[in-house]
Design goal:
- The protein is 41% helix and 19% strand.
- Helix 3 runs parallel beside helix 4, helix 7 crosses helix 9 and helix 15 packs across helix 16.
């Protein structure tokens, strides 16, 4: 019996490409009943129709619940929010509860306001005293909520530092710190704010770091902030695309992109329960393309940094909550009935690339090719979440030369078909480089 269990565990590690390093080697958790979570949490998991732990949850929960610091490298859409949130709730409940609360016991730092909102929304399903802090709007309301007392705080580094300086809260009570999407926070220039915030937290805290990639900058941050951490990695440490994504790439002229996009939408629009995310490079392109798509008869919304917080919340709720809503553009009205399976389309800049948490996006279209391969991986990672399948469609032009070589490598690594015209473009670019 023991031999069979050990064999099952070894096969699980191998099948799921899980690497575990450090002074703790806990057995992965295969069923919610094995977690030791309070009955109320397990009941809520069942009511939310979670059937069993995801891979990252299976290995993260036993590490986090034993109090170890942890570094977790896993792709987006792997279920990491619950991987750190639920142990955080258990950790908080095991701490002495102060009579007067001036700050959270659990602090979760994340790069974007959308992700902060989604983390807090998820946490609220399991605990009541949850708040969020992010820039853009709602400062006074956020401050009031925090002052009323909070156990769990999800925050963007900039707004949190603002609140700390203003005396809205302190971090004296914080004993459980999570850095979510650490690589993205560093990409966005938050390292100084993060370091200042962490310096205000007691050194005997438990710290968990989650990242999709493992570059030198993230390794340095981990070395500075974590104590004897357990290292958990799901998949290859090389930057790689989710193998559940079919990656399609078409080389086009700039003036052909509009036609190719509409052809793709025409092929997929008849599918039931279909959500499509289209990435563009500039804010004005998002608005222009949304108008164009609507004129062709497809329901569409746009999301970018110039949208007000009210508009952003409206769009995010529409995409996430599967509810009936009315969208107006001039005298045009579009009813998007997600429950009846109409194809909903979101046109977005990269502001949504890491903050959007929607499980059933089927297609990701790169109308404008991203500037680097990291953004390509993160963009297409919006589909095929939670072990589902999805498709990405990228329109590549000669102006996208900086990404072509790495794009070909990513396609080959994921065992995808590399189109001949993309290989021709790679050869052309290489030849031009030699001439120069």
């Amino acid at each position: 019996m023991i031999f069979d269990l050990q064999k099952e565990i070894v096969e699980w590690f191998t099948h799921n490409e899980v690497t575990l390093k450090g002074n703790s080697s806990p057995r992965p958790i295969f069923e919610f009943s094995e977690t030791g979570f309070p009955p109320a949490i397990i009941e809520k998991l069942k009511k939310a129709c979670f059937e069993k732990p995801t891979v990252i949850q299976s290995i993260s929960w036993p590490v986090a619940l034993t109090g170890h610091d942890m570094i977790s490298i896993a792709r987006t859409g792997s279920g990491k929010t619950l991987a750190y949130t639920l142990p955080g709730i258990v950790h908080m409940q095991n701490q002495e509860q102060p009579e007067k609360v001036r700050g959270p016991a659990v602090l979760i730092l994340a790069p974007t306001r959308e992700l902060v909102q989604q983390i807090s929304s998820m946490a609220m399903n399991f605990h009541s005293k949850v708040a969020c802090a992010y820039g853009g709007s709602g400062r006074d309301q956020q401050a009031r909520t925090i002052r009323e007392g909070v156990d769990i705080l999800a925050a963007a580094p900039g707004r949190l530092l603002d609140f700390l300086i203003a005396g809205v809260l302190n971090l004296n009570r914080c004993t459980y710190l999570v850095l979510d999407e650490a690589d993205r926070m560093l990409d966005m220039g938050f390292e100084p704010q993060i370091r200042r915030i962490v310096s205000m937290i007691r050194p005997d805290r438990q710290t968990l770091m989650f990242s999709a990639t493992w570059p030198k900058e993230v390794r340095t941050l981990a070395k500075d902030f974590l104590s004897d951490p357990v290292f958990v990695n799901v998949g290859s440490l090389k930057l790689a695309a989710n193998s559940n994504i079919i990656q399609l790439v078409t080389v086009v002229e700039e003036n052909e992109k509009e036609e190719k996009l509409l052809e793709f939408l025409n092929r997929t629009s008849s599918e039931q329960h279909c959500k499509t995310l289209i990435f563009v490079g500039m804010k004005r392109t998002a608005d222009w393309l949304t108008r164009l798509i609507r004129k062709k008869g497809y329901p569409a919304l746009s999301l970018h940094g110039d949208k007000s917080q009210t508009e952003r919340n409206f769009v995010m709720n529409a995409i996430v909550n599967d509810r009936l809503l009315l969208v107006c553009l001039g005298d045009l009205s579009y009813i998007l009935d997600f429950k009846n399976g109409e194809c909903s389309i979101l046109v977005a800049t990269d502001v949504a690339a890491r903050g959007l948490d929607v499980n059933d996006i089927k297609y990701v279209i790169n109308f404008d090719c991203p500037k680097n391969i990291e953004d390509y991986i993160h963009r297409i990672g919006r589909t095929a979440r939670h072990d589902k399948t999805g498709t990405s469609y990228t329109l590549c032009t000669r102006s996208d030369a900086p990404i072509v070589n790495e794009l070909v490598s990513v396609l080959k690594e994921a065992k995808q078909t590399v189109p001949s015209d993309l290989l021709d473009l790679k050869i052309l670019i290489s030849g031009m480089s030699e001439i120069n």
